[in-house]
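Problem 12. The chain below contains 173 residues. Write out its predicted structure in token notation.
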Amino acid sequence: MIIELKEWSFEDKETLINMCNAVDRTYLSDRIPDPYTNEAAEWYLNMVKETDGLKALFREIVADGKIVGTISVEKKEDVYRKDAEIGYYLLQEEYSKGIMTEAVRQICIIAFKKLDIIRITGLVYEPNIASKKVLEKNGFLLEGIMKKAIIKNNSIHDLYIYGKVKEKSCQKE
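Solution.
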């Protein structure tokens, strides 16, 4: 299987809408509109166009030529500006194929090269075992657990904080 990360384009708007309406939202942020509308897709694609490569990276996850998910790394601000947060989702029918593990590997390489950051943070809801494994396989370390930090679908969860620090060979002198 060939896994590629590609830049989002307006030609992919319908695919984005369909994917966002089909994705399992159990462990996703509530900031993703539900239902995902044409207006939401246009707002997102315009925001991506304005910020990609500057403050963030937003990529389609493409497996064997089909868009199956999305992944992003977004820089934080103020005293946290050398850190960025990774986020991703995959269509349920594509789970357990190694797609997300490979997508995270690729986006971390790109983010450390293109964004002025020295670490990437991954935030995972306690029951999301698959996401923990994806980050761990990519060298993210569990740095802490915030007790009772998340409410999702009327359930309270702990938040696992993972971090990956840029390797010295990648850092600017």
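Discussion. The mean pLDDT is 95. Students who got a different answer should revisit the alignment rule from Section 12.3.
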